Structures are given as C-alpha cells and as structure tokens.
Amino acid sequence: MKNCPQCGADNDKIICEQVFHTILSMEPDSPKLQSEHFKTVACYIIQHPAIYTDEAIKALVSALRDNLNHNVSVSEILKRHSRIFEGTKRVRKNEGAAFVQKKWSMTIRDCCVTNDCESTSDNIVKWAKSIVNDWGAV
Fold it and tell me: How far is Cα 138 from Cα 134, in angstroms, rounded to an integer?
C-alpha cells in the first residue's frame, strides 16, 4: 500500500490528483457541487501544499475558516487574496518542494462518490470542516 506523500491518503490504485479531477468533472452536472468549488480547490491545495508558500497555505486556511464559519463569500475571499498577494508577492514557491505532512482526519479520497454529486458535495463540506478542525489541532 502506498500513501500520498503530501496528505497521507491511501493511493494504492488511484492518486489524489485523479480524484480531484474526477470531482471537478462532476461539477457541470450539479449546481450544488459547483457551489462547493472553492472548498474543493482550497481543501485540495491545503492538503497538497508542496508547491505553495507557507503564507499562501495559512491564508487559504483562514479563508476556508471564514467561508465556513462566517459566511464570507468567495468573491470577498478573492478580493482579499488579490490584495494580499498582489505585485511581486507569490503563492508558489520558487525553490524545491519542502513540507511537513500533517495528520488529516479526512482527505479527498473520502469525498468522491462516483455518479453521486449530492453525496460528493456533502462530503466536500465535511472535508472542509475537518481541515479547519485539524489545522487548529496542529
């Protein structure tokens, strides 16, 4: 059994990126799943941070928390991040990928229910909440 080197999920037969793209490919069939697009992308990046700066990941966790707990809209989050990371400030690392794998109670592998956008969408919200909770515990 092989685990994802970033999130620790069991990647025995399929890698996390494939699951991520499967979920994204389901979005056009489900307005509910489309409405969780921000959470899907944010959660995936937070758990697969190798090419992102620590500051970018922390800002994304904060944005996810604000979206979940304070109903901050995605458009407001985009405005904030545009101001925070404007000009020469970057979200991607210039140097090699160095990171510490965290222990997660839920990963993208727990979200995707093939041909069931409703359940997948519900799982995305659970995943986002688990990340915010897990982040606070680390």
Answer: 7
Distance of alpha carbon 91 from alpha carbon 97, whole angstroms: 13
- Residues contacting residue 26 through CB under 8 Å, at least 6 positions apart: 33, 112, 117, 120
What is the tens place of the pLDDT at every residue in 73-108? 999 999 999 998 887 777 887 766 555 667 899 999
SS3 121: helix
Q: Which tokens is 15 given?
A: 């890698």
For 27-57, write each residue's pLDDT tens digit.
999 999 999 999 999 999 999 998 888 899 9
Burial class (CB in 10 A: 0-12, 13-18, 19+), 109: middle
Name the phi and psi angles at 124, rounded to 5: -60, -45
